[in-house]
Each structure stands twice: as structure tokens, then as C-alpha cells.
């Protein structure tokens, strides 16, 4: 069993299906879930936790050599990043990582691991990396659901584009494809709705449930009356906290979050509206559903009567005359479900648009950005009942398989022919005919579907009959004899039988114009925006002049995606599902072999073993590797010079097994890494040469400057001695003239050597520690300190004064920012927390920490930016962590993945959870050195922010009493609450002053209660509460009390 433990299957000498299967199975049983096929990674889902992704492993795979470490998903991320940077043998180029496999094979988890490792590779002093990482859990909650094949199945496709400038990430964009909206209103047996509904019901607090209008989850028809065990509910509650934190980290506003959750609650309430006919054949809402109708209207922010009218009738205008058509019960239920589907689809699309807006690159348009794309798309599916969504999903997988075949087999073997390379053709299963069957115009399946969708009277049976007549002779289509509209497509992964019922309606995806007008006039701003067409894509049916079907939209999206991927350098990850029971340590050999066959892995191994995966042109290779031959650097790389340069370079190296074509060189997949190592060695050697050359050059320059300084000093001493002799002679002559007593000359005072300026000027105070000596030798006296000040030095001094003025202005601006936007958030109970120290310098903060224990900390206002800095006393030194304010007002420590509503909440959280990367806990706060007043002038007056007007309520206290400290007075007047003036306050009536005093005291002492009252609410919150009470009263009546059991999981609600 030679290939049993091979990490690279392309090295197998005995290549057949059985040896391939046994090699993968044995590696899987030893928890070696990753295996190479040349430069392609095969990943088998272990269905359990493995310690393969900890920090230490991540660090080992940074800038590593492939042959020295076992196969890993981190190695793919590193290879893509290094290729994008041009550090491998190829030049800089856009990259794409294609993750494929059937549903449940582990594609979503692989995507998250790739993103995490790429963010580790490009880590910079920015919060953008953490924001990008938070996008996945957010989209996962709204776009993933449990199916019979996968507990966390992606019900949409996404292509993540990471934009880089130099080595740091500058932005990201998410492209989403075909959300399965029908899941909102219907789920098959053993499946669930989207995760967000269960997370929301499990995670929010009882107060928030009352605010949004949510009841027991078993009462909602769209959830099939099922929920879960207490353990599952607890996990959903934790997931909801992650989703809320992800929205905070990315930058969603609090009101936007409330509106979004209210719309989701409205979708659940909408599903419980039931209809019944009356004696006049006019539909009405059942008595038990009236409360749900009122709740839905309040949650959507619309009028109850208008919502009912939109559900029970259709209004059309013909020749200026309004015609109202009443719905039957089935049409009313279809309209209800259509509203739920389109509302959820628009919320999801808005989330993606909002993420793209917040993560857009903040660079100039003329800056060229490199890109790494990661494709995570729904896997191949074959359920008991397959509908329109499954056809689109399997079409996407057909496109990905064609892209893989084209890149690995077709394009490579065509180049062998064109370049005259001897090659024995490797046959592969080409799925191009299947794509033609579905996509070809005008007789493809999707084209015929669009044709039938254009006829209002057409039925799903008519559509299937037309398919049968057109494709009955195709080897990739099978006719199904059945009363139901069924047909079968032979995909590359096997036969799939589709139920044509609902194809036409799903492809049309229409919604009455009355419903659009209803939601445009909603008082919920988010819902109004979603249906006004301001923040939704132009391919919506009623927002564009030309209606486009869902199938046509999806086909166009796939074409755009393929265009992006064909111009990038691809990296492939093939995910394998070991068994259908989602159990660890079990391998179903038949299932694994089926996946190996339809993925074409046996043929892939053969072409990777015998073929040449890297095929650069002569010019590309010579430009990249010309540094190997120094005498060719100045040569003109054109014509024969390029060809001979390539041969000279390759003859210089120890690389064997390459071939030369007519215009290209052909290398094995491992040659690229060997050349990369060679170029890396040459680069390091060049750095050593540069270092020594520059060291010698500047040492000579320094010695010449020292010589010049010595010469100037000698000349200065000689001039001083000549002047002294001349003065002495003049004095002697003067004494002879006046015949007076001769006294020795008075020596001239020696010039004082200038002292270096310290880095900061500490205020003179008895309680402050002495300033330590400068730690850097750049502040010590140098031989150049005594040189004369030339014009250039004067100019530099002028620039220094200008910078000082700018720093002073920035400081004043930051004080104003803190005064106007932050002071009220920091003050608690009329005073600042003891850990808050205002605007002090880094040196002052470190001096305060001199004699403090490990774990002591303080927070100070930034001097050069709008934000804060947390200074922490570590075991060996003080560390300074930047605290950034998100665009939504949340606080986060740079590099952390948790956002906080206030600084006290941040401090409380990190007193329990350590700050990365050293896991440092905040244990002791560094208090002020004075017990009564703050240490620094910038804080004076701010702690009286909320109680500054209360002096009128204190008996015996005179108005206008002034503090002797003028700075204190000035700051006290500057930091008054907006709209108040001390001069006008005295003129107000006593009653109004007492009301104002009580309000300000409540604001200062309210704490969390004040924050709770100021939080946003749904616009029609009173209507929602009244509707919920009506529903509960109906449910508590004797007629229905037996059908609504009390849930046992309510205690798991989370805030």
C-alpha cells in the first residue's frame, strides 16, 4: 500500500480508484482531513472539532514552504495571498479560491477559515479586518438553514471580493446569488426556516419580545409549530448575541436593527393570518386571526384596513377605470405568502448592500487594488422533491464543474497541442452539453421557462410538456410518465428528478402594485426604503421598466461571476462528505467514491502528475526571474534575447523536468515553489548587499561630517585665541597710555553647552513623580549641537512651530468633540469613573503606572485623534490599546471582535475576558491622585455636567458664586448641556428651574435606566402591544386554551 499515507496524491505510482479511496479513508481515520492533488486541496468534513485551527497552527502556515508542512486549508490562503502579492514565481495578479462540493461537505466552514487566515496574513493597524470577519456570521444567520442534508446549509451563494493595496486589506464586497425565499413560507419534513427566526426568538429578552410583538415560537405557522430542545435553544441564544455583535461591529445603526427585527416579527405574524369566506363571497379574516392582522399592521407600520385590502383583492386600472377583483381563499393565502417572501428577500438584500457600503474601500479611484475572491456557493442537491431552486442550485454547480474542467483539462491540454509538447490526451467527463441543455437560447430549459412565464394562462403542466417534446431525444434529459409535472435532468453528479409545480410562479416572482404602494407609505423607514427602490437592486420586477424573470437574473449573475473568475488565477478546494448521517469517524465508501468520480479527481490526479500546471510565457518568466543572471539585467528582453535568457536562467538552477514550447515554458506544480525559494534567497542576499553598501556609504558620510565639525571647531578656537591675543595687546596699550596699574585680563565666559529637550513637559506639581531621563539616545547631546543655525535649520524650526500649532488645534478640536458627544456618555452618577483620566500624554500615563500592580489600567482621551486609549500595566511594560468609535457609536478595542455600547461596558467586559493577544484582564483601576478634584484641567467642570444647574435648589447658596480657579470656571461654562446659558437660567421661573433640575439629576443618576429609555422603539409600538394583548386574550379563552401549551424554554431568553 504505497500511497497509504501520501500527503500528495499526485505522487501515487499505482493510480486507480481503489488506491485513491483507501488512501483518503486511511488519512481520514487518523484525522488527516486534508490531502493535496498537486496544487489542489481535497478536504473531507470530519463532523467534529479538530485542533487544527488554533493560533499556533495559523502562525506556522504564514509564509511557509509547502513541502515542510502537512496539507491544510491555511496553506491555500497563504498561497493565494503570496500569489496576489507577486511573491511567488508569478507576478502580482488577482486570485480566486473556488470551494466546491455537495451540500454538507464543509464549504461554509472552509470559507470562514480561509477568510480568517487571510486577515491574519494582512493584519494591519485597522479594525477593518475584524469587520470583514464579522460578515460571515451575519450572513450565515440570515441566509443559512437546516436541511435534511446539512444542519447549516447555505441557501444562497456568495462571492467575497477582498480588495488589497500593497499588503493590507482596504475593503470588501459581497455578491449574493439566488436566496431561497420560498423557505420563509414552506419547509419540507425535517427542515427548518432560516436561522435568524429561531435565534431571535431564543436570544432576545422578555422586554424586547414585548416590544417587537413576539410570542411562543410554537404558535407561528411559518415555523411549522416546531422549535427545539433546551440545549438547541441555548445555542440559538448564543448565536443571536453573535449576530447582534456582528451588526454592531460592521456599523449598523441601532434604529436600523430595531426596524429590521420588527419586520422579521411582522413576517412571522403575517403567516398566522387565516381567511374565511362570507355569505357574499367576500373574504374576511377569521376571528382568531384578527389579532395577528393588527399585530402585522403595527409591525409593518401600515394601516390595518389597507393591509387587509391588499390581501383580499387586486386593484387594476384599465382605460382610466379602477377595477377591483376579489381574491378567493387560495389567492389570498398566495398573496400573504408572496408578501412574506418578498419582504424577507428585500431585508436580506438590504443587509448585503449595507455591508458593501460600510466595507467599501476608502481609497482614491486612481489607486489600483489587487483582489482575492472566495466563492462559497450552495452545493449540489438532490432531495425527495426538487423544485425551481434546486434546478438553479445544480445549474450553478454545473458551471463550477465546467470552470474546473476548462482550467484543469481543456485549456491545459490545448496548450500542449499548440506548443508542440508531446502529450497523451487524458479524457474527462465534459459537462458542456448539460449547460447547453439548460442555458442555450432559444430552446434551453430556462429560455422555454421564460417563454411560458410570459403567458398568463400557461400552466406548469404545459411547461413540462414542452420540455418533453423538445428534449426527449437528448441523452441528458429523461421524460417522466406521471400525472404530476415531473422531468429528469442527468447532471454531472447524477440524475435529479424535478417537480415542475410552481416553476412558472417562482420564475415570475411578481407582487401586486397595491402591496408595493402600501409598504412605500409605511411609517417604518427601513420598510419604506426597501419598497421604494432606493436601496434594492434594479432587477426587481416592479422597480424596472423591463421585467426580468428570476431565471434570467440568475443566468446573468452566473455569467458575470464566471467572467470574474476566468480573468483571475484560481485555487481549488474540493470538499468531500464522508457519510450521509452527519456523524464523525464514519466513511461511506460508496458515497465517497461517487463524489470522487463525478468530481473527476482520478483524472485530476493523472493530469497533475504528468502535466504542467504552470505555463508562463518566455517574457513573463524572464521578467520575473532575470535577477538569477545578473549580467542579463541590462539586456533588452525581446526576441531571441528572451528565449536565451530563459534557457540561461533554467540552466543556472537545479530544476529538472521542465519543457520548452514555441512561446511558453512548461513546469510541474512543484517547480513554482522551487523557483520561489531561489528568488527568496536572492532577495535576502540583495538585502544583505544593500545593508552593507548603505552602511559603508553613510558611515563615510558621517565620518566626513565629523571631520568637518572638527575642522570648524578648530577654526573657531583659533579665532577665539586670536581675538583674545588682540584684546590683550589692546588692553596693554591702553594701560601704557593712561599709565595706570596693569591688571590681568578678565577671561571671557565660556559658551554653555545646550541641553536636549525632553519629550514632554510635565506640569510642576509636588505630587508628580520626577521625569525620567530620555530612553532614546537621539535626545542626548551630539557634536552637531554647537553648529551655527543656518537658513535651512531656521526653516525646519518654522515647520516645527507650525506642527506645534496644528497639534494644539487638534487638541482643542478633540476637547470639543469630547465635550459635545462623549461627556454625557462617560459621566455616571454625576462623576467620572476613577479609571478615566481625560486628555493626558502617553508619558504621563506611564508615569502614573510606575508603582501600580500588574493589571492596573486607565483610559485617556486621544490627543491626535477622536477616540480613546487604554493604558495597561503589564508584567514587563505598559501597553497602550487604541479604542475606536464605530460609525454607529459603539466602542471597540482595536483588534478585538466585540463592540460595546459604552466605555463602562467595555471595562466590565474586559475585566472578565482578556484583551488579545496577551489575554490581559483589567483588574485594578488607576484612580486620580487627588480625592476631591480631577488631576487635569481638561476634566474640570465636566463631572458637574448633569448637575451644574442644581445650585438653585440648594438653600443658602448664592447664584453666581464663582470658583477662584478661572480655568475651572471657563470649562464649567463651556460644558453646560446644549441650549443652556447661566445668564438666562437666573431669569427662568422657579418652577421651570426645579423641573430642569430634576431632569438633569435624573440624567446624571439614571445610568442603565437612562440608556434603556433612550433606546429606539418600533414606530407603532402601542399598536403592537394592544394587538399582542388581544391575541393572548383569545388564546386564554376556554375555547382555545387547550391548544396553546406553555413552553418550557422561556427562561432561556437573553438580552
Automatic annotation (TrEMBL):
Disordered as annotated region, ranges: 978-1055
Keyword check for Chloroplast: no
Region (Actin-binding): 558-580
One Pfam family linked to the record: Myosin_head
Location of the protein in the cell: Cell projection; Cytoplasm, Cytoskeleton
Every Myosin motor domain range: 4-680
Keywords: Actin-binding, ATP-binding, Cell projection, Coiled coil, Cytoplasm, Cytoskeleton, Motor protein, Myosin, Nucleotide-binding, Repeat, SH2 domain
Signal peptide: none
Domain SH2: 835-926
Record has ATP-binding as a keyword: yes
Residue ranges with Polar residues bias: 1032-1046
UniProt feature coiled coil, ranges: 706-733
GO biological process, one term: regulation of actin filament length
SUPFAM superfamilies: P-loop containing nucleoside triphosphate hydrolases, SH2 domain
Alphabetized SMART domains for the sequence: MYSc, SH2
Predominant location: other
Protein name: Myosin motor domain-containing protein
One example GO MF annotation: ATP binding
InterPro entries attached to this UniProt entry: Kinesin_motor_dom_sf, Myosin-III_kinase_activity, Myosin_head_motor_dom-like, P-loop_NTPase, SH2, SH2_dom_sf
Record: residues binding ATP: 101-108
